[in-house]
């Protein structure tokens, strides 16, 4: 905005000086023209150099630029006594007045330089007035008008700048809030993908190992090594595109009794972004595993084809089928690994199945034109992008534009009111004897004041001016222009008694600030046309009169039109550009934050698994640990239960503790253990770290139980207790050591009590809520 204002000031001053100077020379006597030209031509050249400096700012030091600006003021001021007459007075007032006003924008960041040039302009103006009228004192009224203009221009700049900076700060706060939301959403999406990967790989492998011996384990070492690779990979950073047909050709069919023969019918190649491609591949792999484990058949059909800009993949089998609505929410093979995984990349998945009929799973990628689902945290391919970026960018631009519009309207309203009730009011009072009739001019003044008051009332209340009020006010302003033009002697048009000519345009600009500048230009054309018509109807004016009117028109209406052009540029050029640049910078910051947080989250997750899960997979993958070993199978069962409890943490349920405990119970039930679960008391809130430590000892005992176990949860106002009784716990001492080793890794204040009697084991974990929390569990 500062650069735009500087350019505006230089161009405005240069155009006004050249046009008004040319009109002044035209109105001068033939004998005075050479001397006037000798003064004005260097001023024109200085303006040209100043314009050139906008293109090459580094070539011109600030001292030289200030000297050029000062030279323009001095040369134009000294031309007043040379040209002489009323036209010279009007010319110099317009040229010096516009120059000192423009200096406030050219030197906006250096107010001292702008003030010094304004003071120089005032001195030169007074000196020129004295030299042009020897023996008479200076006319202080034009000087007062000039100083008022300088003060108003500086005040307008401060108002617009203040609101622009406030808009920037507010936009930055909003952008920071959105960034935090987007980062959190991306982290949640990556967390879902990571949990789905663990479910499909390590969790499934460990659960299969824990379920018993007597099978071919030749598939286990490569599977364990693949699981380690999947766990160590950072999800969410896939880039580029893949051939989905080639990817589906790599779907593992399993080994031995778990092998599922796939009949593939794929119309390839199918090029899609790598994010959706990998999501479909992982989902198909999980679906094939489900066929092997649950369908009761060893054959399935895999199809893929294009659909519009997207792709469709379908896996079907003729197995025993099931009722999808009966699947518990804690089971993640369908909800997490298939459906949620596709939603996270902007696709969709569906499962259709009926008992004894079979199952059909379908994945759909809708192409790049489809918008991400609401709530998605990532956008494939590549590092996740913030959702609805275009909508947010439009909102930012609209917000910045709104604040700039409010600031400019406020500044123009200030100019309108101050000008009308200082300069215009004095002219109206002093020249009452000139008007024909005077009461019409007074009524017009009151009407114009009412226009400003009505519009200002809407502005100060933060409301838009209704269209009916806007056009009524514009009509009133034109009526004021007509009344003042036709009740004023023609020779006084645009002169000292014409209080309305220079102020009506400011009122119209305030009313039309939010519209395109051509509407305001049309109003100014009608305003100038009414005054020119009034003059022309009284007789043809002289060249000097036309020159004087032209200079006045350029000095007032031309200035107002240039301000309108600047406002349009700021609102429709600078604001979108600023919004686009801010959006680009914010997107880069968001991407960096997402990248950093996802890397850190991944390290934290992997670190949490290195103490337990990773050693098991390493041992199984390299043959150090044998699945025939009962202790190894028990350890795999414990880790599978811990993972299932981890998956349950992301569920939105009323009682997270009970939900996560049931996830561990289900693992034990898959191993043939009968578990009874009882809950006593009213559930309450328990931090996630505490829930982990309350459930882990129970998960260890359940994983080592051979036949039956009883789990009890007791809620009291101050204490939460989770206990398990196992009638036949294998390796009781080993179970106790495993639970204790896991419990030492945290600082959470959970007390664990263990009692063994023969083959029975009783373990109770308790947590006492700190009294300072002030929250009751009842």
Automatic annotation (TrEMBL):
Q: Does the keyword S-adenosyl-L-methionine apply?
A: no
Q: Where are the compositionally biased (Low complexity) regions? A: 371-382
Q: Name a single GO biological process.
A: phosphorelay signal transduction system
Histidine kinase/HSP90-like ATPase domain mapped to chain residues: 283-364
Read off the Pfam families from this record.
HATPase_c
Name the UniProt key words of this record, in alphabetical order.
ATP-binding, Kinase, Membrane, Nucleotide-binding, Transferase, Transmembrane, Transmembrane helix, Two-component regulatory system
Q: Where is this region: Disordered?
A: 370-390
What's the domain of life for this entry?
Bacteria
Annotated GO MF terms: ATP binding; kinase activity
**Which sequence ranges are marked TM in the entry?**
10-27, 33-52, 59-78, 90-105, 112-131, 143-160, 404-423, 438-459, 471-490, 520-540, 546-571
Known InterPro entries for this protein? HATPase_C_sf, HATPase_dom, Sensor_HK_TwoCompSys
Which PANTHER family does its entry note?
NITRATE/NITRITE SENSOR PROTEIN NARX-RELATED, OXYGEN SENSOR HISTIDINE KINASE NREB
**Full protein name:** ATP-binding protein
Q: What is the lineage of its organism?
A: Bacteria, Bacillati, Actinomycetota, Actinomycetes, Kitasatosporales
